[in-house]
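Database export, one record per block. Field names are fixed; values are copied verbatim from the stored entry.
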Amino acid sequence: MVLTHWGLLGPESLPSSRRTRTLGLGAAVRAFNNLAVPGLGGIWYAKQPILALLGVRVGELARAKGGTAANIQVANAIEALACRLAFQQNGWSQDARLRGRQKLRERTDFRFRSARSPSFYVSQPMRTASVQTLPALGLVDATTTRFNGFRCTEAGQALLDAALRGSTPYKRSLVDHLALWVLGQDDRVNTDALAQGLSPLRALPAPARELLRDRLLRIGHGETSDDRDRRRDALDWVESRRSDPSSPASWETRPDAIRVDEHWLDLRAGARFFLAREAALTVLDAVEARVPEQRGRPLDASLLAEVAGHMETLRTAAQAFLDNGHPNAMARTFCQECVTPESGALLTSLIARDGRVLRLLGGLVCPGPAFVGVDEAGQDGAAETDEVDTPVEGEAWPDGVSQRIPNLFLLNLDLDDALGAWLDREDGEADQ
């Protein structure tokens, strides 16, 4: 994950002291993800947008009473508190829905003035997964794409009311109590009532799950009927895979749930682009593993021979995208660069697109500021996008499918209060 300051939004072009390999393709990644499931962002379970929306609403209320904290500070602090309360209740066991176990276990001061600090919690909070989701589903007014500019809508307030009903710490609504916490007027946050409302491990009440599903099936802010229809069809597809996981899923046959050919063609083209991008990252990882940490290595015939197999795989994947004929200009330009038969030119273009892990200086492939070398190359060099990686997968999907499809599979489970049992099943199978 890219190291993102809490006050900023997207990791596509931010400077980072950690590994970031966008390859200049962030806009194409976002475009294909949004063609797959418009407006979903990076969410994969229902509490993610709820906690982010809660941060917006509590921030509004606190500022109306004289506070100065921005939405991002409030939302990240609430998310940290939610994970801490959940960890306390599950005995500090790992869970895909929780983050920051090591950091939060060390925290003893949960006053808001401490929890608002960027170093208090993780560098990539789950809130970032909801930046697109909240406005797309009409849960916030957004005159800007910046989270700090979001304002809760009536639909968002209705969803919060349904999600938090029954959670009344100290005989207050959860929103009112958290606003007092943000204002420094009540620091009591280690309560069962708060855990009941905030814990990511607790399913939303049925009325809230119904409202969230309804928002997925509506036309959201700035959307078209095609956006809504694609989201509906994707929901139908993941539900059909849930009902019959043994049915084949391949790019050869469009499933009945995807009603429009263009949607299926976009899904398939996106998959071919994602596979080409992953093949390019594999080439760069292979080169990185062969570059001495303290000095460069010549970009010569010897190096090219050592990574020739990876480059041939990349050429094949890139040509598959080009053969698909999709008009996305950024993806086409990238894949055209990748099918060149001249291996030196291909590797030169990839290193130029990288720039942070590897650099080309005077004919030498040299370590960049995010270089890790032979022992760790390939461990965390995945491309950064506007998406937040899902730590678990759904059923088997066609190769390269947008991450939003398995994300939606999991969200659909959660909207039926079936995610917890599914995750327990997966953990049990993994332990066998």
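Remark 1: The longest strand covers residues 358-361.
Remark 2: The beta strands are 140-141, 151-152, 297-298, 358-361, 364-367.
End of record.
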